[in-house]
Amino acid sequence: MADAIKSGHVAGAALDVFHQEPLKDSPFFNLDNVILSPHIAGATDEAQEAIGIQLAMQVRDYLKLGVAQNAVNLPSLSHEEYLEVAPYIEMAERLGRFLSHATPGNLENIQITYTGRIASAKTDLIRNAALAGIFNGADGEGATANRINAAAIAHERGVRIQEDKREFTTGGVGSVLKLVLHSSGVATGEKAGDTSASATVLHGTSPRLLSYDGIDIEAPLHGTLVAIRNHDVPGVVGRIGTILGEHGLNIANFALGRAADPARAADPARDAHSQRVPQGQALAVVQIDVPSAASANAAIEALRKVEAIASVRLIELGKL
């Protein structure tokens, strides 16, 4: 450029932003028909006012709408794009929290499968919400994973993330999210194992559990849930209802499922109590009203003493 200006092939030039700033040595310094400006356009009064307004609007949109515009570590979504995926972001975090309570040992790998319409959407926030739910549910109070930093936390912990997108579904559900968690069990002495769950959003606002470790079941993903694994024998449902009633816990929803193959053995790597239930898996997810934490904990302990019940987990997902 300098040679072209000196020879007259280029009449003049106005340049800004250089490889080295501030610019200390340049062939343009002695050329009268060249204007050089440092990288300071954003330092003008007008630019500073415009930047301040834009930042305030971005913070407002995040707090009111959940839209994170221009994040350096997350693809931006328009308001319209966010509205389309927002129900699945919320569902993903709840599904992650639900599944975190069933994760044995040392988490090594998380597989996320998007099926249906969400497979063609920008899924980064859905992924991060699921990861945040998994990490925060496993870590308990004081956990710091959120929808922005969850993928970075997974990387720091050495947890591999695998994502798969399938744009076509079977059946009547438009979009399904499936999570598979693989653990090594090294940290706790347990055997390695997988645990999985899938969910969807009904009516645009209602997150629903569709399956849990291969057992089809439809249950709400909000409020206080009791997830129960049991031997597929008569009388278990009655015992569950009786015990919850004795402890003053009202049943808001009672969902049941059973393994397609009644002879399928419970996985001892997944549940410490599963050796009591050698075959015939069944599953119950009960949504309850909890008058006090003490009554809920007492009911859980009572359920664990039932011979036909392999495992019981109390899961708090909060209100919608």
List keywords for this structure.
320 residues; alpha+beta; six-stranded mixed β-sheet; four-stranded antiparallel β-sheet; 12 strands; 28% strand; elongated
Give a description of the structure.
The protein is 30% helix and 28% strand. The protein is α+β, with helices and mostly antiparallel strands and 320 residues long. The strands form three sheets. Strands 4-3-5-6-7-8 form a six-stranded mixed β-sheet. A four-stranded antiparallel β-sheet has the order 10-11-9-12, covered by helices on one side. Strand 6 and strand 7 (206-212) form a beta hairpin. Helix 6 (236-246) runs antiparallel to helix 7 (293-304). The longest helix is centred in the N-terminal third of the chain and has 22 residues, at 79-100. Mean pLDDT is 86; it is low at 186-191 and 262-278.
